[in-house]
Automatic annotation (TrEMBL):
SUPFAM superfamilies: HAD-like. InterPro entries: HAD-like_sf, HAD-SF_hydro_IA, HAD_sf, PGP-like_dom2. It holds the Pfam family Hydrolase. This is Pseudouridine 5'-phosphatase. It comes from the Eukaryota. One of its GO terms (molecular function) is phosphatase activity. Gene3D superfamilies: HAD superfamily/HAD-like, Putative phosphatase, domain 2.
């Protein structure tokens, strides 16, 4: 199983960074790497609240969410596959390795990000998005990874799952789920 936040598959973190740096910059605030590391992999509403509070944006989290979502929605279809991803995913799929995506993105956002890459994402037997989690149960909680493992037929044992993850919150969640983690 390869549950993964989008950057392992798609180069979306660059888009997130540019959008949040732009919005913060409009208010004279800075979106730093340290802040980005705190919000990577979290559900959008939770991330927006952390950003607003951390940098003192004069916006409510919902306002930041609306504006960032508008900008991200415009840019996501341009997301490119990361180098080597297509080859690896098709190889694993051809050899019967079950594959999953477990993402902090909503279902709608994931569809927007992947609309140019449907063929690759057709290899995924399981997709779990933040929409399917109870509030407060996004990464770094293990819930999304455990949910993905449970959806395989038969369900995958967490200790036999390998998670490719780039976000510190995702690494923590996968470890908390009892899974092996490759930090990208």
């Amino acid at each position: 199983m390869l549950p993964k936040q989008s950057p392992w598959l798609l180069d979306t973190e660059r888009i997130y960074t540019e959008v949040f740096q732009s919005i913060c910059g409009e208010y004279g605030k800075e979106y730093t790497w340290a802040l980005k590391a705190r919000v990577m992999g979290r559900p959008a509403r939770e991330a927006a609240a952390i950003i607003c509070q951390s940098v003192g944006l004069p916006l409510e989290p919902e306002e930041l969410l609306v504006e960032s979502s508008r900008r991200l929605h415009e840019r996501f279809p341009s997301a490119q596959l990361m180098p080597g991803v297509e080859r690896l995913v098709t190889h694993l799929s051809a050899h019967g390795v079950p594959l999953a995506v477990a993402t902090g993105s909503s279902r709608e956002t994931l569809q927007r990000k992947t609309e140019q890459h449907g063929r690759l994402f057709n290899h995924m037997q399981v997709v779990v998005t933040s929409d399917e989690l109870a509030a407060g149960h996004g990464k770094p909680a293990p819930d999304i990874f455990l949910k993905a493992a449970s959806r395989f037929i038969p369900p995958a044992q967490p200790a036999k799952c390998l998670v490719f993850e780039d976000a510190p919150n995702g690494v923590g969640g996968a470890k908390a789920a009892g899974m092996q983690v490759y930090k990208y």
